[in-house]
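Re: alpha-L-arabinofuranose structure - here you go.
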Amino acid sequence: MKRREFLCGVGAVGAGILVERSFAQSSRAADSRIEVLLGEEIGTINPTIYGHFAEHLGGVVYDGIWVGENSKVPNTGGIRTALVDALKRIKAPVIRWPGGCFADSYDWRDGIGPRARRPRRTNFWADAPEWPKSVGPGPWKFETNHFGTNEFLSFCRLAGAEGYLAANVRGLGAQQFYEWIEYCNSPAGSTTAAEQRAGGDMPSRHPFGVKFWGVGNESWGCGGNLTPEEYAAEYRRFTAAVPRYGVDLKFVASGANVDDFNWTRGFFSKTAEKNRGLFGSIFGWGLHHYAWNLGMGKTNDWLAAKGDALRFNDAEYYELLREADRMESLINEHWTIMGEYDRQHRVKLVVDEWGAWYKPGSEVDPTHLLGQQSTMRDAVLAGLTLDTFNRHADKVAMANVAQLINCLHSLFLAHEDKFITTPTFHVFEMFVPHMNGRAVRAIFSAPEVRYTRVDKPAEFWGLAGSASINGKQLTLTVTNPHLSEPRETEIVVRGARAATAQAQVLSEPDVHAHNRFANPTAVQPRNEAVTVSAGAIAYRFAPASVTRLQVSLE
Ligand code: AHR
């Protein structure tokens, strides 16, 4: 390919212009280029952007996390030990709980004290249209409350994660929110709530010191069908006065669904109208975005437009990535509106639900409502999304993939004594070195992917990723979405010289590849050697892959 042709087909991701002269000096075989600009810092990557979400939904809690103390499944006080061990491997920073929509139907007081005395309640999801007809009553429809506040926060302690509790705004009041904080955080022996915490079947004398508190969930929908103005008033009421016990409480307001900019504008304008100083006490503004719509313009119906987790064609693969890739513009657009009112940008974005959402049929057990298998496609989607968060480290303070286990875009699948990790788990493990790194700008230039979408030509970017620095180590993560073409890439680091580099890559010849109970290691990352010559790196990114390069700088 001649250089002129190459440049015509090249898309640059990362808002930069390729310098022609430097490309002309690069390797002839390369069709792509990544330029890492060490001098252009974005911000520190908060580990909490690699966060998780666990809702009382289908098989997430019962069968997923909680197996019970008397189970034959290896457990620690009833909590699945294999899950805890795996979460330690990925340094899970934070887990959101108990929902989701479930949160706004949950009374935390039902889930404390001796388990035998806890009430059984109807789960928010009991009537979901996605339930297979064969599934009758059980803890998935009628909540036993065996997994309550102490069980969840003990699970977090075991995993080394922080708890992020979502409060019920639709059904409970500000006083119960106040008392939940008191229950979790008041010092041993100080309050009746602290005594209750120290009793029951999983006692904790020591306060849990919960920092992150969500004020409702999807308050525009299942969380109360509120208007943004109504929600702004509720938010202020809930957070006006709460006990702190020396904990730096961080409140997350229930933010927008996808591109509902009206919700963001409504909340921020109302809050500014009352008192701009309030922005200083809001840690995060939520954002939910799922990649689910494979209707390709023919339908936007919530059930009909979803695709299959395992059976998909090339167009559906690219379409799902395209849907996920909206995350970048959503971050930018919500951020811009937030800044119109909160001019110092004290409030950060918390993307507390994201991931792929398919139609039912691939769940590992019928009781796992919204359970789905997870392929290499989901790994690529996770890679491009986490890279997006890294590139916006100055804006995104936390993100929570939905959901942890046995559900949408899960890192783990489990049923009874069977437990496996999905390809997405491997992506999270590969990205660990980014945690606490300083994100720096990188320019990606690669030939665009061209494919056919509903009989018409369509394009998607060729390579994208993110870079961060930790001491003398540069971590560069890259996704190549192309289903069949590798990208021969020259990588240049501006501001330092690469000495050595190594790669870890997750890719499979078939993008439908996934792990199963019968074959738990079908998809796993492999290490690869990397050529560094005169400070420049040459690397071939495999098709449909997620790659991590770790570069030692001189
Ligand atoms: O993650 C499943 C559901 O998706 C959550 O309960 C809700 O918040 C969202 O609509």
